[in-house]
Structures are given as structure tokens and as C-alpha cells.
């Protein structure tokens, strides 16, 4: 079975670990969000691609969900001693090596998709990891600070500001001119199932769908498209998704996120058992919906979620 997954960072990566366990023989292609990418210290950092690669390759810091296990921060300390920031973004020594290799290869003319493939040679994530695009796309967030509106990089909003002020708008800068990376449309076109993991619907899955051609290819693929709600009990399971959902006028409920994707894109939607009351509303919008436990507490719970998603896909296919 060929499965395509649109993934952000932590939520997407952990779901993929469960999916691999639930469907060990599946051929899985991951289309990764690159809107969170940032240039720091002259290096290109791709947090979501790296989170997927390290999580599936066994190198992730499990507690944090991002960055490397057994990390040290000597380089960060040395940069700070020179007064070179930003200090609010924690790049560790081991992680730095990834960004150095990536930046060196990009400088030599390789596209991000080829660089990602090369990095995965080391990590062997057991999936085909594709960036959504080889073109530069950066998510910016409009905020009002001291009565003035300004746009900040997504990482500044998320990590430095901790989403402490309302997001007025979320813009994937560069997306309109971008093209899907090689292999992306082909993977969607030959998929048997397409899954949206419990990733952020605005800044992760939403940014991938903003690359011209990807949303259309998924809608036209003619195969089941099933998503898992990242909102449980009217709050994001992780992160501050409610802030960016509000910016696009979507309530933080499992049903509202399904309706935001819409029945033109989504065939099936899983909500948590605490949101069982949302099932009827989602089904009346033309999306098959089931309530199952959606907390990724351990590998077995996550694999069960993946099995439920695949079962719902078969149900809508029938
Ligand atoms: N998240 C934080 O909350 N603080 C950090 O200092 C931080 C550093 C960081 C470095 C590399 C990397 O790959 C991810 C990192 N993240 C950090 C996570 C990241 O900012 C976001 O959680 C994702 O972009 C959202 O998907």
C-alpha cells in the first residue's frame, strides 16, 4: 500500500512512527512542511524536516520532540560570547552539523529535495521524505505590538514570543510562486491513501496545501483522504494551534478544523472520544467521522490511531 502523509514537526513525526508500526510493509512518502524554515548564522535550518528525520531515524530528543538526543550547546555559547544571536533559538552542536551539511550542499547547487535525500542516507527514516517545495517559502505572522502591526518570522512568533499575542494573519511568503518539489505530485497521484496527521492545520498542513498544485492534486487523487484532529476537547494537544486557527477565523474545535479542510478535500476525520459529540456535525458536512482515542501517549496508542485512520480510509473507499 502506498501512503502519502502531509507532515509538520512533532505531531507529524510521532504519528509517522505509529504508522510505520501499524503498516510495516507500506510504502510511505512524507511531504514535509518547509514554511517553518529559517536562516540563522548563515545556515538553513529546516525544523520540520529534521524533526521527522531524527524521530524516525532514532536521533530525536524524546522529551522535547525536536532537536538531537544527548545534545550540547557549546557553539551556541561561543556565538553568544561574540554577541551573535538570536539566543532564543536553541541550536545544539549535533544539530548544527545537519545545518552545515545542508547549507553546504545547497550552496553547491543541490536542491533541498536532493539534500534531504542525502541527509536521510544517514538517518534511514524508513519513509521517503520530500520537502513540499525546493523553493524558499517562509511563514510570517502579522502581530500588533505597541499599537503597531508588524510581520515576524513564524519561529519568532512561536519560540521567542510563545504565541503570547494574537496572530492577526499567517502568510506563507513565497508560496504563490513556488512549485511542488520533484516527486510530490507523482507520490500523490500514485497514492492509495492520503493522511493528514494531527499536525497544525494552519502552519503545517495548511502551508503544504498552499503550494500551488498540491491541494488540487490531493482533491483530484480519487483516493481516500483521512485526517486526525490535532484539537482534543477544544484545545490543541500540543503547541499553540488555537492562536493561528483564530487568525484564519477557525474555532479551536475538532469539528471546525474538519470543516476548514472541507469535504472537497477530506473524506474521513478522526476525533478523540471526548469529542464524540462532534461526529454528527462533521458527517453532516459530508466527511465520514469516527471518535477514537487520539492521544499519542506511546507507540502502541499511536499505532492504534494509525490503524483507525487506515480502517476509516477503507470504509470511505468501499
Ligand atoms: N522550539 C522551541 O520551542 N525552542 C527552541 O529553541 C527550538 C529550537 C529548534 C532548533 C531546531 C529545530 O529543528 C527545532 C527547534 N524548535 C524549537 C522547534 C520548532 O521551532 C517548532 O516547534 C517547529 O518549527 C514547529 O513545527
Automatic annotation (TrEMBL):
The keyword Lipid metabolism is assigned to this record: no
One MF annotation (Gene Ontology) recorded for this entry: LPPG:FO 2-phospho-L-lactate transferase activity
Keyword field: Magnesium, Transferase
Domain of life per record: Bacteria
InterPro entries tied to this protein: CofD, CofD-like_dom_sf, FbiA/CofD
Catalysed transformations (reactions): enolpyruvoyl-2-diphospho-5'-guanosine + 7,8-didemethyl-8-hydroxy-5-deazariboflavin = dehydro coenzyme F420-0 + GMP + H(+)
PANTHER family, per the entry: 2-PHOSPHO-L-LACTATE TRANSFERASE
Protein name per UniProt: Phosphoenolpyruvate transferase
UniProt source species: Streptomyces albidochromogenes
Lineage: Bacteria, Bacillati, Actinomycetota, Actinomycetes, Kitasatosporales
Amino acid at each position: 500500500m502506498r501512503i502519502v502523509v502531509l507532515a509538520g514537526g512533532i505531531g507529524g513525526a510521532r504519528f509517522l512512527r505509529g504508522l510505520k508500526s501499524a503498516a510495516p510493509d507500506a510504502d510511505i512518502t512524507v511531504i514535509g512542511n518547509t514554511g517553518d524554515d529559517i536562516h540563522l548564522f548563515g545556515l538553513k535550518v529546516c525544523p520540520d524536516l529534521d524533526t521527522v528525520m531524527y524521530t524516525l531515524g532514532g536521533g530525536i530528543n524524546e522529551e522535547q520532540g525536536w532537536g538531537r538526543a544527548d545534545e550540547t550547546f557549546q557553539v551556541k555559547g561561543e556565538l553568544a560570547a561574540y554577541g551573535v544571536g538570536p539566543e532564543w533559538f536553541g541550536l545544539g552542536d549535533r544539530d548544527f552539523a545537519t545545518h552545515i551539511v545542508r547549507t553546504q550542499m545547497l550552496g553547491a547547487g543541490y536542491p533541498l529535495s536532493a539534500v534531504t535525500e542525502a541527509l536521510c542516507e544517514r538517518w534511514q527514516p524508513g519513509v521517503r521524505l520530500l520537502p513540499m517545495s525546493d523553493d524558499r517559502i517562509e511563514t510570517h505572522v502579522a502581530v500588533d505590538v505597541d499599537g503597531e502591526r508588524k510581520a515576524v518570522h513564524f519561529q519568532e512568533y512561536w519560540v521567542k514570543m510563545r504565541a503570547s499575542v494574537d496572530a492577526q494573519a499567517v502568510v506563507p511568503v513565497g508560496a504563490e510562486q513556488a512549485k511542488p518539489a520533484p516527486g510530490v505530485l507523482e507520490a500523490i497521484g500514485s497514492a492509495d491513501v492520503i493522511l493528514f496527521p494531527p499536525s497544525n492545520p494552519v502552519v503545517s498542513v495548511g502551508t503544504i496545501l498552499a503550494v500551488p498544485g498540491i491541494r488540487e492534486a490531493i482533491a483530484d487523487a480519487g483516493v481516500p483522504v483521512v485526517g486526525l484532529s490535532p484539537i482534543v476537547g477544544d484545545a490543541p494537544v500540543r503547541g499553540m494551534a488555537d492562536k493561528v486557527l483564530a487568525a484564519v477565523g477557525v474555532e479551536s474545535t475538532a469539528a471546525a478544523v474538519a470543516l476548514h479542510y472541507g469535504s472537497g478535500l477530506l473524506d474521513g476525520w478522526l476525533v478523540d472520544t471526548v469529542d464524540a459529540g462532534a461526529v454528527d456535525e462533521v458527517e453532516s458536512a459530508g466527511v465520514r467521522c469516527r471518535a477514537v482515542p487520539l492521544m499519542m501517549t506511546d507507540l502502541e496508542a499511536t499505532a492504534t490511531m494509525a490503524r483507525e485512520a487506515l480502517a476509516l480510509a477503507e470504509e470511505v473507499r468501499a
